[in-house]
Amino acid sequence: MPDSGAFCFEQPLNERIRTFLRMEHLFARLRYHQRDDNMWGRRATMTALMDILTVMARHDLRAEVSKALGGYYTNLKRLTSRDDVDSAQLDSLLQRLDTLGREIQHIPPQFASYLLRDNELLNSLNNRHAIPGGSCGFDIPSYQNWLRLDRSEIKTHLDRWCQRIVPLESAIVSLLQLLRDGTAPQRYEAREGVLVHQNNTDTQLIRVLVDDPHVYPEISAGRHRSTVRFMTFHDRDLHVRQCRSTIAFQMACCRL
Fold first, then answer.
1. Distance (Å, whole) CA 105 – CA 100
2. What CA–CA distance (Å, rounded) separates 171 from 240?
3. Secondary structure of residue 37 in the 3-state scheme
4. N- or C-end of the chain: fewer Cβ atoms within 10 A?
5. pTM, whole model, 2 decimals?
6. Are strands 205-210 and 240-242 parallel, antiparallel or unpaired?
């Protein structure tokens, strides 16, 4: 997401944040396509929903999100005794995290797996999901018929299938916002297109913000060090090469 007009590129440094970013991407796809009520919009909505349910069926997101909420709550709770902290804002944030944690606990374990198994339409889509064009009309005629239903019927079905997703969506979006907002970007220069940076050991997410739309960063990061290498397209076939000029940019190494 861009900050202050810049193009933003992000690199997670652990598997939890990597999964959260992927889920945030899928949630955004789902909500965007839900606003499109034509046939292709409905298909795109269902593709996003199937991706979300597939990820949730394969990973224990409920536990990961609960653990992350608990960790953030504990870390922020330690700030309550500090005089330089806005206590009202901190209390509001702690209440928000507590509410999100309680909502997560009401999600049945493995609900995505059961939904994909027990709902006949979703099960049919799931079985064809990995096949390019596998949801074509002749493959799943029941799906073709469902897509023709009235808008209110489609919405009723989607709301029911998404009801367990909403608490996870709210929690993941809130956690990533806290992580991003917790560190202000600093200005850097990549001489000859490269910057090597020493990471703090608790860095979870690197965000690089660039104003120039013709360059982009390739970010490789380990526990102690990260390298930001700026690349550009240099011909009509979109071959890339490293920039050799000095690139001014902003970077935030986010942690809580």
1. 9
2. 37
3. coil
4. N
5. 0.88
6. unpaired
CA-based radius of gyration for the chain: 22
CATH class of the 15-180 domain in this structure: mainly alpha
Question: 15-180 and 184-254 share one CATH topology?
Answer: no
Residue from 210, 247, 216, 246 nearest 233 by CA: 216
Q: Which residues contact 44 (CB under 8 A, 6 or more apart)?
A: 29, 33, 36
Nearest-angstrom CA–CA distance, 204 and 200: 9
Neighbours of 8 (CB within 10 A): 16
Task: Give the residue from 237, 190, 238 showing the smallest Cα distance to 9.
Answer: 190
Q: Where are the domains of the chain?
A: 15-180, 184-254
Amino acid at residue number 172: I
Separation CA 166–CA 34 (nearest Å): 14
Q: Which residue type does 218 have? A: E
Q: CATH homologous superfamily for 184-254? A: YacF-like domains (2.60.440.10)
Cα separation of 210 and 53, whole Å?
34
List the pLDDT tens digit at each of the 256 positions of the chain: 444 558 999 999 999 999 999 999 999 999 999 999 899 999 999 999 999 999 999 888 999 999 999 998 998 888 887 877 778 888 899 999 999 999 999 898 888 999 999 999 999 999 988 888 878 878 899 999 999 999 999 999 999 999 989 999 999 999 999 999 989 999 999 999 999 999 888 899 999 999 999 999 999 987 788 999 999 998 888 899 999 999 999 999 998 7
Q: Which residues pair with 252 in a beta bridge?
A: 207
